[in-house]
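Q: Give me the 3D complex with adenosine-5'-diphosphate.
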Amino acid sequence: MTAQSAASVGGAPAADSAGAATIAGREAAAVAIEDAGMTYPDGTRALQPVRLRIAPGEFVTLLGPSGCGKSTLLKMIAGLLEPTQGSIALWGRPAGGRAAAGRKLAFVFQSPTLMPWANVRANVRLPLDLARVPAAEAAHRVDAALALVGLAEFSAALPRTLSGGMQMRVSIARSLVTQPQLLLMDEPFGALDEITRYKLDAELLDLWRAQGLTVIFVTHSIQEAVFLSSRVIMMAARPGRVTDDVVIDEPYPRRPEFAVSARFSQYARRLQESLLQASGGADGGLAPGPAQDAAQGPAGDTGAARVTGTRA
Ligand code: ADP
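A: Here is the predicted complex, encoded as structure tokens.
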């Protein structure tokens, strides 16, 4: 994704996303989760009741170890799973219903799930073919989406000739042609090498801002959560539950320098402490690595509380 990302696929006005992140008003909620919980048919209690409001334009990350219910919560928001208790509304309409779907949400999975026999263009056009969008309109939207993810020159390529990062860009382009207002992403870059992942993280932020999207992003990487998010929802396992809600009060665009700054370390430490508290001192199974080095903090740590806000 390139500087072309200022182009708009959906024609949605670019929102001041960082500003919108501070709005949590009842009327403004893009996603309102009212004590929604999930017990699977086999009796697994995947998620204790969650109460959460997400305003339009927020970039919210669900962060937690495997099995804490991140995917379950994301699927419930998408309307792919119905909560066994409580309810979820998107812009005031029940999730899973036709009216909520009309606000257009797109789901990006960890695997790009491309059709191997079809070229990039045909893969990106698939949702428009299914929706019987007229050919000229479809062609225009596909062109715009490919430009946004920097793949305009690869429209005739087959997926197997592309790198993992490029395949994921195709998957993102395929979600953008539907002109979503809400983008749900389940560890989309988890299978990529760290450098590619970092690049795609930065590109995703460009897209989010240019398109005025609301994004809910799942990861188990503290570092990725801090770099991307306007707000991090911390979750814990056994039983799956929300344990913390932390605002990353850092302006966008986020420069690469942010990732090596003292403030970044303080946020990482704040989330690490929250994780330890929720898991009773165990490491909770979150991705180790530089974030945890960073969480050791620079000498003379000033205390995370000063750089983070917490929402009730
Ligand atoms: P995460 O995305 O955080 O790894 P999941 O939402 O996938 O967590 O899973 C939460 C819990 O629910 C886990 O204990 C998992 O084994 C269980 N689970 C997930 N899907 C199902 C299912 N279809 N049936 C029964 N249990 C499930």
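A quick observation: Confidence is low (pLDDT under 50) at residues 2-26, 288-312.
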